[in-house]
Design goal:
17% strand, 29% helix, six-stranded mixed beta sheet, Helicase, Ruva Protein, domain 3, 27 strands, globular, Rossmann fold, alpha/beta
């Protein structure tokens, strides 16, 4: 009898009654197009079985599993590690997350002859008085407030949009007194002029008559710069949304009170140790380990040293113990959890990894590859991946396809799939013409400025080692939704240089419980209107949105019934009343071309393109475009929460094609895609570029560079985030 893990009759999500074997103490690779069921197999089935079986033996409460299988055997305890980060607790740090703060405090206490709890951070007396042990403070953020491309006379400060007439006159008066041209944009001002408008104060008061709602009012006040925070109108203070978290000037992120600066080991206070990067701490910990004579510390220092050594080996040397978990990328957190796996004293685990090489530069990939493969000597490894890097190392390859959604979920021939992926004729990128030179002196991430050139009306590829600041450079900071970009918390980024900018990130599509493919593609209302017009009804009669007449009364339009609560894993069961559509069943009798709105919701986008081809060309066009970008397999009424990462980002790219933005930043659009899907996405991005758009794309997927006119390697040059043009 085989010692392999055997799972039979798998029907989780879109999987079609498949049987798989997983080689123990080996590398098992799962491949296939986006949405074909790879995550359903790896995480929702294999990993979940391993976790549930382990927890069921001792846990007081165990959630009902959501996997659907007929039988399984030879399972082992599973550790699923995904490329995602949903931790939003800014007090959660690498040190607390991995339980190392206590160990570091113990080492310091014992070596200095102090009590073992002397350095704990949950004592008010130990904390920095200024930031109360958080490491940062909230301050008005220049970059959230200032719109660099708005003339002064039109009020370039977002927080002054209320009573804009008043602020416009105050700015113009102040500019006249200081010989500043109010027709200039904020970007065009000298540094001295910018400082006056940000921090200055007028010598005299201005009397201003301004429009207030439906009447006029008069106010006499001095002008106060926007960053002084001094209100010129009563009850018009600047809201919290215009604040950001900046490193505490008192403790400089160390969190401890000043009195702890005098307690040092190897020349470092405990706060300096916690904020020092792993690369620099490696030598420090080596020296400490040689000095240790106390038996209480032998095991503790061994584990700490192993963690730091492995973190450096996995290209995480730039991180520190006080780095907040929410500021880590999904890839960084995944590798940190891998560090924990490598240093654990447990053996014979089932380790499930999601594209462990994604988002890494070429130099980084080799090290991670070697480490991942080495895991199989001690554990069983299951990898979800799309490239060919792990093919040779794999003891077992499982291919799913041929497409995503209901068209996937089947076992397919590995060799046939690989052959199709290698037979692609790539498009030739356009030649580089003009460049936009961007030089910024303000801080971004841990750098003092930015120096980068972007090729205009071209596809630009941004590469660089993990953690250098690529995503931070492209990310959008909005006044309505504050964001902490990085450990050092200063937040200037690339988008503010451009007049019109759109950022496409890796986060799942937003929406409520009724959100589906039709709603995110903006065709839901059109379909409702089409049926309403045909049958002379109000469009709400054919809408499943909450509160509308066409909503299913049982599930309130969601299409499913949810069981569970905040303390237990919830379970979703398809609503039998509406068959998962979210519609009232009375709508079944209202048809167009023999199909009710129930039937339309169950159609794939490919099928919908044919159905609406001669009925509504605008709906058909959206569906055809979806097919063009390899989304034709999605169902019209498919819940957005069921979409894969690759499907999410392709929908975002589809929506971006309608944007008026001149510059579009995209974060890893090729992550999780097969070669055929990569080609489709690249061609679609190039179509967007043809509309005189400039695209700036972050990605490290092997082979995608051939689609780009310019390759830019982001690196640290004298503490400036600089771009080295490789092509």
């Amino acid at each position: 009898m085989s010692d392999n893990i055997v799972i039979e009759g798998i029907e989780t999500n879109n999987l079609k009654n498949i049987d798989v074997q997983i080689v123990k103490k080996g590398v098992n690779l799962i491949i296939g197009p986006s949405g074909s069921g790879k995550s359903s197999l790896a995480y929702d089935t294999i990993a979940q079985i391993g976790q549930h079986e382990f927890m069921a033996m001792f846990a007081d409460e165990v959630s009902e599993p959501s996997y659907k299988v007929r039988a399984f055997s030879n399972m082992v305890a599973a550790v699923p590690i995904k490329q995602s980060n949903h931790n939003n607790n800014m007090r959660s740090t690498i040190g607390t997350y991995f339980g190392l703060n206590r160990s570091i405090g113990l080492i310091y206490a014992v070596m200095l002859g102090l009590s073992e709890d002397f350095f704990v951070l949950n004592k008010e007396s130990n904390l920095c008085e200024n930031c109360h042990g958080i490491g940062y403070v909230s301050q008005l953020d220049y970059n959230k407030i200032v719109d660099f491309n708005v003339p002064l006379k039109n009020v370039p400060f977002r927080c002054w949009n209320r009573y804009k007439d008043f602020y416009a006159q105050m700015i113009v008066n102040f500019c006249d007194d200081n010989n500043i041209d109010s027709d200039k944009t904020f970007r065009e001002l000298s540094d001295k002029e910018k400082d006056l408008l940000l921090y200055g104060e007028s010598t005299e008061k201005y009397s201003v008559r301004y429009k207030k709602t439906n009447a006029f009012s008069r106010r006499t006040s001095k002008f106060f710069g926007v960053l002084t925070g001094t209100p010129m109108l009563p009850n018009c203070g600047i809201g919290k949304s215009y604040y950001s978290e900046f490193e505490c000037e008192c403790c400089h992120g160390k969190k401890y009170g000043k009195q702890f600066d005098e307690y040092k080991v190897q020349g470092l206070s405990i706060g300096e140790f916690m904020t020092g990067d792993f690369a620099s701490l490696k030598g420090v910990v080596d020296k400490i380990s040689k000095e240790i004579s106390d038996d209480r510390l032998a095991f503790t220092i061994k584990n700490l040293k192993a963690f730091i050594d492995k973190a450096v080996e996995l290209n995480l040397g730039h991180l520190c113990f006080h780095r907040a978990i929410p500021t880590l990328s999904g890839g960084e957190l995944q590798r940190l959890r891998m560090v924990q796996v490598f240093t654990t004293q447990l053996s014979d685990l089932l380790i499930v990894l999601d594209e462990p090489l994604a988002g890494l530069s070429g130099e980084e990939k080799k090290s991670i590859y070697d480490n991942v493969v080495s895991l199989s000597k001690k554990h069983t490894v299951v990898i979800v991946d799309h490239g060919d890097t792990f093919y040779k190392a794999a003891d077992k390859i499982i291919a799913l396809g041929e497409k995503g959604g209901n068209a996937g979920g089947k076992l397919i021939d590995v060799d046939s799939f690989l052959k199709k992926q290698s037979s692609i004729k790539k498009i030739t990128p356009v030649a580089v013409g003009n460049q936009t030179k961007i030089k910024l002196k303000s801080c971004i991430y841990k750098y003092k400025g930015v120096d980068i050139s972007i090729a205009d009306n071209c596809m630009n590829l941004i590469i660089g080692y993990s953690g250098v600041g690529k995503s931070t450079l492209l990310s959008v900071i909005t006044a309505s939704k504050p964001k902490i970009a990085a450990y050092h918390f200063t937040t200037l980024n690339l988008p503010q240089y451009f007049e019109s900018y759109l950022y496409i990130n890796q986060k799942p599509l937003l929406g409520n419980k009724n959100s589906c493919v039709a709603t995110v593609l903006d065709i839901s209302n059109k379909i409702s209107e089409l049926y309403a017009k045909k049958h002379k009804k109000d469009k709400k009669f054919f809408s499943n949105l909450t509160g509308n007449d066409g909503m299913c009364p049982v599930c309130a339009g969601a299409g499913y019934i949810e069981y569970g609560d905040d303390y237990h894993q919830s379970m979703r069961i398809e609503c039998r009343e509406c068959e998962g559509t979210g519609f009232n069943k009375i709508l079944k009798k209202y048809k167009i071309k023999g199909a009710s709105i129930f039937d339309v919701w169950k159609m794939t986008l490919d099928e919908a393109a044919d159905f609406f081809g001669d009925t509504d060309k605008s709906i058909a066009k959206v569906c055809v475009t979806a097919s063009e970008i390899m989304l034709g397999h999605l169902h019209v009424g498919q819940a957005t929460g069921t979409l894969s990462g690759g499907e999410n980002i392709r929908i975002k790219i589809m929506k971006a094609s309608k944007s008026t933005a001149k510059v579009i930043g995209v974060d890893e659009p090729f992550k999780g895609l097969s070669n055929i899907e990569i080609d489709a996405v690249a061609r679609y991005l190039d179509k967007i570029r043809e509309k005189e758009k400039t695209l700036v794309v972050i990605d490290h997927t092997t082979g995608v560079e051939d689609y780009f006119s310019q390759w830019i390697q982001i690196e640290n040059r004298n503490n400036v985030l600089s771009g080295k043009i490789l092509k």
